[in-house]
Amino acid sequence: MKVVGVTSLDNHKRNQATHSSGEKLADIVDIAIDNCVPAQDALVDVESWKAPVAAGSTAAFVTIAMALVAQVAAELGKRGVSMPVFVSPNVEGLSLDNNQPVFEAYQRSLDRQSWNPPLAAPHPLK
Q1: Which positions ≥6 away from 17 have C-beta within 8 Å?
Q2: pLDDT band per the 50, 70, 90 thresholds, residue 126
Q3: If phi over 0 gives left and psi between -120 and 50 gives alpha, with beta otherwise, what is residue 98?
Q4: For the chain, percent of residues with pLDDT exceeding 70
Q5: DSSP characters for the chain?
Q6: Range from 12-16, 22-26, 107-111 carrying the lowest mean pLDDT
Q7: How does strand 42-44 pair with strand 53-55?
Q8: Which residues, in sequence order, are bridge partners of residue 64?
């Protein structure tokens, strides 16, 4: 299995790591996808404001993630693999219960898990 990370390679080049290991995301993944967002991330200057707003990384990540989903689906389709897909009920030609198998598959995956979260540790200052 490969680990893929989406990050700003401009930020990677310009700034020091903030993690205690001294490493950055692009240093530890097998494949680093550049989101092409400038290091400061915020893209819009607002008159009379000191700092820009509107992070570009969010929009870039969603776009990249959906491109990956589309490509993986296309590859699976070429191999004859079909999976239940969650789609908008506004897609013409699909029944209103199209998403039910997706909900059921998700519920089965939850049912198979025997995950019991640990109890919260007491606050160290209390």
Answers
A1: 23, 24, 27
A2: very low
A3: alpha
A4: 90
A5: ---EEEE-HHHHHHS---STTS--HHHHSSEEEE----TT-EEE--TT-SS-EEEHHHHHHHHHHHHHHHHHHHHHHHTT--------TTSTTS-TTTTHHHHHHHHHHHHH----PPPPPPPTT-
A6: 107-111
A7: antiparallel
A8: none
Fill in the amino acid letter for 88: S
CA dist 85 to 12, 35, 68, 71, 99, Å? 35, 26, 15, 14, 7
Beta-bridged to residue 115, according to DSSP, are: none
Residue range 29-75, pLDDT digits in tens: 999 999 999 999 999 999 999 999 999 999 999 999 999 999 999 99
CA distance 35 to 60: 6
Domain parsing of the chain, residue ranges = 4-81, 84-112
Q: How many CA atoms lie within 13 A of 19 on its CB side?
A: 9
Q: 53: which strand partners?
A: 44
Backbone angles phi and psi of 53, in degrees to 5: -130, 175
Under 8 Å between Cβ of 24 and 7: yes
